[in-house]
Amino acid sequence: MEITSDEMKKTIEKFYQMLDEVSPLDFDCGKLCGAACCGTDQNDYETSQLGLYLMPGEELMYENSDEFELYCIDSDDEDYFQDELYLVACKNPPHCNRKIRPIQCRTFPLIPHISEDGNFHLILDENEFPYECPIIRDNMKLNDDFIQVNYKVWRKLINNPLVYELIESDSRIRDEQKDEYEIII
Ligand code: SF4
Ligand code: SF4
């Protein structure tokens, strides 16, 4: 049965609501770093120059937004992604319409990982960024409810085969490169 745009939007809104109720630390972690992951820490980089990857269907949230620039890259550009891939760029970071900031912003610094034996985990995002996240650098303890809600949301997101495929592919690359990562849950 095909899912309608309205149904898809409602699902994404539900994920946003769940993630709105938690945060990585008990205070605004942006105060530790000048909101570095929004590209406002005086480094020579801005998120407005970088795209934030969207989950399938999440692009529907940005169709009428003045605060984000929505764009799509061709599947040919990504050898492991079989469909259109949408990104948004924020026009005025760190100010954005918080109600529709992408899942990627809400779940950082956790990212999903699927082990070789098929177990699903969340790990700290140790990809190279043009900024330093103090939570990752100092291995700060994340709020338990943040971890639990993230886990629930990602478990639902990986029901989409496209998302599962993308995460599994990233996980195998991580393992092949023998990148170190910390399993959080
Ligand atoms: S870089 Fe890390 S500490 Fe800074 S705002 Fe982003 S998540 Fe919080
Ligand atoms: S969408 Fe908002 S929270 Fe996410 S990087 Fe842009 S300004 Fe920061």
Low-confidence stretches: none
Please report the number of helical segments. 6
- Give the bound compounds: iron/sulfur cluster
What structural class is derived from the secondary structure elements? alpha+beta
Number of DSSP strand runs: 5
How does this model look, in words?
The structure is a single chain. The chain is α+β, with helices and mostly antiparallel strands. The chain is built from 6 helices and 5 strands; from the N terminus they run ααβββαββααα. It has helices spanning 5-20, 30-33, 103-107, 134-137, 144-157, 161-176; strands at 52-53, 68-73, 85-90, 110-114, 120-124. The chain has a 3-stranded antiparallel β-sheet, with no helix packed on it. The protein has a two-stranded antiparallel sheet with strand order 4-5. The model has no long low-confidence stretch (mean pLDDT 87). One iron/sulfur cluster (SF4) binds next to loops.
List the SSEs and their pairings.
Blueprint (H helix, E strand, L loop, with lengths): L4 H16 L9 H4 L18 E2 L14 E6 L11 E6 L12 H5 L2 E5 L5 E5 L9 H4 L6 H14 L3 H16 L9
Antiparallel strand pairs: 1-3, 2-3, 4-5
The chain binds iron/sulfur cluster (2 copies).
The site of one iron/sulfur cluster (SF4) has 9 residues, from loops.
Brief overview:
This protein is α+β, with helices and mostly antiparallel strands. 32% of the residues lie in helices and 13% in strands.
Features of the shown structure:
binds iron/sulfur cluster, two-stranded antiparallel ribbon, 6 helices, 185 residues, 13% strand, alpha+beta, three-stranded antiparallel sheet, 32% helix, single chain, globular
